[in-house]
Write a structure and sequence with these properties.
Layout (H helix, E strand, L loop, with lengths): L1 H16 L3 E12 L7 E13 L4 E11 L13 E15 L3 E14 L3 E15 L4 E7 L1 E9 L7 E7 L5 E8 L1
Antiparallel strand pairs: 1-2, 1-10, 2-3, 3-4, 4-5, 5-6, 6-7, 6-8, 7-10, 8-9
Length: 179
């Protein structure tokens, strides 16, 4: 057991020394009230882990869960529990001393408990503000690709779309720690 522990410690130190692994993610919480109904708490927790293959390329995934959509009144009545996974490959196109511009290409699967399944495949442009070699503030703005939303109950209508969504309401913000 001691040898296994020492091997794991050595592996973590080796990976950390080369600064190739990053962790982070984003989260949100809100209290939503519609009319005279009771307030409902919505939240999301979306941790992220990735591996830098080289200076320009990285692979990673977001795996998370939530209830409803924070600060959104559209689905506040349902407040469905969700689970999602979103693996991606990241290409950093422009790199400066403090700012990197990148695009994530991948897919996302999101399950709305007892209600629906959502898939999307496409590109998400982003920017990273690098405070130092360890901490980065990362933002994604928009989506270009295909989305499918399929309800799981009898007689439900399903939605699919191809397109571009680059408005200011489609922004995510997170923090990454580089090791």
């Amino acid at each position: 057991m001691k040898k296994l522990f020492m091997t794991l410690v050595a592996a973590v130190i080796a990976v950390s020394a080369s600064a190739q692994v990053y962790i982070g993610g984003n989260a949100g919480i809100a209290s939503t009230k519609i009319g005279d109904q009771d307030s409902k708490t919505t939240y999301k927790v979306l941790p992220e882990i990735g591996y830098k293959i080289n200076q320009d390329w990285a692979i990673g995934t977001v795996i998370g869960w939530g209830k409803g959509t924070p600060v959104s009144i559209e689905d506040a009545d349902d407040c469905l529990r969700t689970f999602e996974v979103a693996p991606y490959i990241r290409y950093t196109a422009v790199r400066t001393k403090m700012v990197d511009f990148f695009v994530d290409g991948g897919f996302m699967y999101k399950h709305y408990n007892g209600h629906a399944n959502e898939w999307n495949v496409g590109l998400r442009p982003g920017v990273a503000l690098n405070f130092n070699k360890t901490v980065s503030l990362v933002a994604h703005a928009g989506f270009v690709g295909y989305k499918s939303y399929k309800r799981t109950y009898e007689g439900a209508k399903n939605n699919t779309a191809w397109g571009v969504d680059l408005d200011g309401n489609n922004i995510s913000l997170g923090v990454l720690l580089n090791f």
